[in-house]
Specification:
single chain, Metallo-beta-lactamase, Chain A, Rossmann fold, globular
Length: 464
């Protein structure tokens, strides 16, 4: 068996790893790389594998850095099955079509401004075509991937439908080899979703390392810490009389923010505030999340049974059209604007940043990891000037980093999740982390006496 590391190797996006075994080729994820526009375009057009050579894809979850290049794989000849959970299948239906729409729109915008732009990676037609290849599976149930290869999903607690992937390979005449891929591992104690399920034992482990050398500071528990930091940002905007702008991923982070804002208002810790969700995808995703209660934790199910509205409170307004989005700019005084993308690389959030970054009354709150070379990372790192749509803007707004909102396990949470696998694992590969994070986590694993620890570079191949 060989494992090819094609993406999210020494970087945090573009998840894609290829298992070659039993004369078959199976991909773990097929995600878009996100970063500098030119670098991202080059990497995303070079998949390092032809779709016609891939027999199946095991998709951990629907976030675009894990699923977003599936239509490109289809364009290069893929005709196999994409295995995912039912909720991931439903979410991918939204997110891949939205990705195609954004690519087409942004390229039209660039061309209208006289700037050079390649054609989109794929269109909505390609997204719809690859969605026909999806085959949903339930958590904990084995399914056949190819002759000699079977797999099952376990709840990863990261976003709705997210899974760690457990693969069992049985070559003729040899003992079975088990591979556990964490995908993006969530955190115990987050609202709405169940806690991550235990990772299955395996001889080979592929682990994420987004927060490989840091911990989330959570005084009073995860949920209370998230509420406290969000309250601080909300009150800062309210006292200044400005807008609170939250760049947030449409799936997961947006729903958590709504959940906690609703609790803060009910508990009278913040004034009742107008909240705008300015992302068609976030609106659709929030509705979809509500249709998958099988993924909810007990507390959320109890609130729903009591007819509370933790996912879509009454004071939330949905900006579905471009006209709705533009009207938000006319609002004076305090309001909350939740908009995508979470790393400020595309989408409607750019328009709100363009309008408000130079306003000292405004507050920008980051609620997730910001990859290197993204606009979100530059703002989070304290840049005093940035470019948005080609225009240089002075940053006078206050910037908050609410790291406790991350849906990724931190270093200690990862170590706890991986600890039952330490004795069984003969090889441990550290992926899905910027190089400093991945290398730091690898050093920690070695100190904990994990065997065969490696941090693959893009294109590396390991024989098992």
């Amino acid at each position: 068996m060989r494992i090819h590391f094609l993406g999210a190797a020494r970087t945090v996006t573009g998840s894609m790893h290829l298992i070659e075994a039993c004369d078959r080729h199976v991909l773990l994820d097929c995600g878009l790389f996100q970063g500098r526009r030119r670098e991202a375009a080059a990497k995303n057009r070079n998949l390092r594998v032809q779709g016609e050579d891939v027999d199946a894809v095991l998709l951990s979850h629907a976030h675009i850095d894990h699923s977003g290049n599936l239509p490109t794989l289809l364009r290069s000849g893929f005709r196999g099955r994409v295995h995912a959970t039912g909720a991931t299948t439903d979410l991918a239906n939204l997110m891949l079509r939205d990705s195609a729409r954004i690519q087409t729109r942004d390229i039209k915008l660039l061309k209208r401004k006289g700037r050079a732009a390649e054609d989109p990676l794929y269109t909505s037609e390609h997204a719809r075509a690859v969605l026909k290849r999806f085959r949903p599976s339930r958590y904990g149930e084995w399914f056949q991937v190819a002759p000699g290869i079977r797999a099952r999903f376990e709840d990863a607690g990261h976003i709705i439908g997210s899974a760690s992937v457990h693969v069992e390979v049985k070559e003729p005449g040899k003992e079975a080899v088990r591979v556990t891929f964490t995908g993006d591992l969530g955190r115990p104690g987050l609202p709405i979703l169940r806690d991550p399920a235990p990772l299955p034992e395996a001889e080979v482990v592929i682990t994420e390392s987004t927060y490989g050398d840091r911990t989330h500071r959570t005084k009073g528990g995860v949920a209370e810490h998230m509420k406290d930091t969000l309250e601080e940002a909300l009150l800062a905007a309210a006292h200044a009389g400005g807008k609170l702008i939250i760049p947030a991923f449409s799936v997961g982070r947006t729903q958590n923010i709504l959940y906690f804002i609703n609790e803060l208002i009910v508990e009278r810790r913040i004034p009742t505030t107008r909240i705008f969700i300015d992302s068609p995808l976030a609106t659709d995703a929030t509705d979809l999340v509500r249709r998958h209660p099988e993924c909810f934790d007990e507390e959320t199910l109890n609130k729903l049974s009591d007819d509370l509205k933790p996912l879509l409170p009454n004071h939330v307004y949905l900006a579905k059209t471009v006209r709705d989005s533009k009207l938000i700019n006319r609002i004076r005084g305090t309001c909350v604007i939740i908009s995508a993308s979470g790393m400020c690389e595309f989408g409607r959030i750019l328009h709100h940043l363009k309008q408000n970054l130079d306003d000292p009354k405004a507050v920008i709150a980051f609620v997730g990891y910001q990859a290197h070379h993204t606009l979100g990372r530059r703002l989070a790192d304290g840049a005093d000037r940035v470019r948005v749509y080609g225009k240089e803007i002075r940053v006078r707004a206050r910037v908050f980093k609410l790291n406790g909102f991350s849906a990724h396990a931190d270093r200690d949470e990862l170590l706890t999740a991986l600890s039952p696998l330490r004795k069984s694992a003969g090889r441990t590969f550290v992926v899905h982390g910027d190089e400093d994070q991945a290398l730091a986590f690898a050093r920690t694993l070695k100190k904990k006496q994990y065997r065969g620890v490696a941090v693959p570079s893009p294109g590396d191949v390991f024989e098992i």
